[in-house]
TrEMBL record, chains A, B, C, D, E, F:
InterPro entries: AhpD-like, AhpD_core, CMD-like. It holds the Pfam family CMD. SUPFAM superfamilies: AhpD-like (SSF69118). The lineage of its organism: Bacteria, Pseudomonadati, Pseudomonadota, Alphaproteobacteria, Rhodobacterales. PANTHER family: CARBOXYMUCONOLACTONE DECARBOXYLASE-LIKE DOMAIN-CONTAINING PROTEIN, SI:CH211-175M2.5. It comes from the Bacteria. One of its GO terms (molecular function) is peroxiredoxin activity. This is Carboxymuconolactone decarboxylase family protein. Residues 46-122 form the Carboxymuconolactone decarboxylase-like domain.
Amino acid sequence: MATVRLMADDELSAEAVEVFEEIRAARGTEYVNNFWRALAHDPAQLRATWDRLKAVMAPGALDPLVKEMVYLAVSTANSCGYCIHSHTAAAKAKGMTEEMHAELLAVIGMAMQTNGLVTAMQVEVDDAFKV
Amino acid sequence: MATVRLMADDELSAEAVEVFEEIRAARGTEYVNNFWRALAHDPAQLRATWDRLKAVMAPGALDPLVKEMVYLAVSTANSCGYCIHSHTAAAKAKGMTEEMHAELLAVIGMAMQTNGLVTAMQVEVDDAFKV
Amino acid sequence: MATVRLMADDELSAEAVEVFEEIRAARGTEYVNNFWRALAHDPAQLRATWDRLKAVMAPGALDPLVKEMVYLAVSTANSCGYCIHSHTAAAKAKGMTEEMHAELLAVIGMAMQTNGLVTAMQVEVDDAFKV
Amino acid sequence: MATVRLMADDELSAEAVEVFEEIRAARGTEYVNNFWRALAHDPAQLRATWDRLKAVMAPGALDPLVKEMVYLAVSTANSCGYCIHSHTAAAKAKGMTEEMHAELLAVIGMAMQTNGLVTAMQVEVDDAFKV
Amino acid sequence: MATVRLMADDELSAEAVEVFEEIRAARGTEYVNNFWRALAHDPAQLRATWDRLKAVMAPGALDPLVKEMVYLAVSTANSCGYCIHSHTAAAKAKGMTEEMHAELLAVIGMAMQTNGLVTAMQVEVDDAFKV
Amino acid sequence: MATVRLMADDELSAEAVEVFEEIRAARGTEYVNNFWRALAHDPAQLRATWDRLKAVMAPGALDPLVKEMVYLAVSTANSCGYCIHSHTAAAKAKGMTEEMHAELLAVIGMAMQTNGLVTAMQVEVDDAFKV
């Protein structure tokens, strides 16, 4: 039901093949998920997205699992069903337990609720919170 | 500029006074921020929100700093300026360094971007991601 | 801070003057708020918006106060600060009491929370809910 | 397609069983919809959500049907398909006629439109709307 | 799965029949898509929406293809799957090539990303950008 | 009121200085706006964002003004006030006339309205719109 066709391996441009090989190597699996097959129509966008994603999601001051959970939280607030599915799977693959998942959901729900209350009341920012 | 008046200490109902005292004790400061002063018009909502927030944000399978960063991510996707200010301050108070903040911002930006790409292409969920 | 200038009465086109007169007559006040002064740069949009607003917000199967509260709820979920301010004022003018306002806020917060939980869990629609 | 499995009756914890019994009693039906079955993985969240929902949606200064329509409006602005389905069904069960539904849709559409116009023009809040 | 039934041609009111005939004439096809069949329950809303859509999307200072692409961009940010499908189809019918589509997607992704970064940092508007 | 301090020229890292020089050269002005000064705390994010923005917004199958208008539309649906201000200014600098601006606003408003109607009715995608 996508608005662009998902590209099969034998339809890819040389540049897209290269990115797909990097995705396979980084993840240790032959499977390349639909997002990349949709993006492959635009090899420059495919390359830029993969390169930046790899850099952003790498271990750093935050560990990769925390980053996946933040990704999932943003995707939820943006109602991106595909993203929620793929980043829930990724978070589990990186060690998110059922208990961690439940707490993550609770924080998302809590944030949504108070976002709504604060916005509806148009509460002014306290001076104490200003940099 | 709020759409409800912020309540001063001497205007609070008995139930609201009790919640304010709990907030002060939990945080170790006399200062009670504007969100609670706006919410205090409805003591039942104030009590329910504080009780649930305390439970949800407590240490558990996820540590409180991770929870603050998830809260900040949701608040950003929902464009809640007040919430972004207050939870950035809270995350810093719980140990978020400049480097962690920068990585959090990068993940939020990345998630927003791919949320947009996926949604615009209406990519179908891979079977591999289904529970 | 608007991205279009607010138009003063003596700058209006003839068509815009006519709409402003209708707004004043319908509301029983000389005051025309900023939204209409921003929209007046495009008299066709001004006319279409005012005509449709008048029809949609008129008493019908739902009473005008209920409509204002629905308007406020949508504006909150869309983070439209101006709209929240103007429709809170309009709801109060139409009889929204403090107690009604508090209950409205509680429903908005509850809906936001469960929207987040449902979306994060990607719950499938029950057959019982399908038309 | 949910990212958590829907729990069957014989998998529930004692605390979840108790909440399910309350849901059945309150609604006068054996049927418990998918949202609660997804939430049942976290009995504390299940309990907190059900308790607060019951309190918030009870008759008060606003009648329950008005509350359902506000819920539906928020769910629409947040693109929560499941929530739209379940709260449309609930609103109908509480007496929403076709005519009321049509007017509700018209108000939601109108609010979305003017939210977009106001935000795109960044109209400043009138002093008259400030508390 | 809609929350209102799609109306068949032989169920339409006289006013709805008239709008459907205008849609068919304007588009040069007998096919009337689901949106209009859902909206037909409320002939006044159907009429108002069609009339305004026709006026807004007509050639003017912006050409119709640009308008379709803007429509698609807004629908993406609002996660309206139906709207994304229908306006992608409409944009292609009006001449959007694969290359234009790819560039449009890239701009949407870029805007989403920087929207997230700016909002998370709560950057203040430069004086230079104020009207 | 930002949650990160805006960096002055004499506080920038060498990598940030380099990006600022490229921004100045590309735009033919000494002025560097607040977004970049906030982003400069993370030189890698600054570099990645500037490089991708330059590539995405360059003339191609779509002209730069169309791209600015799409950017503005997305920023509006995401309620990013700063982004709306900066991209309205950029669109004007690239030739957006008052008439084009008015038509852009009308399309955004129309899209928002029908997004709301379609979502509230959960209209199913026509087979004719599927790729």
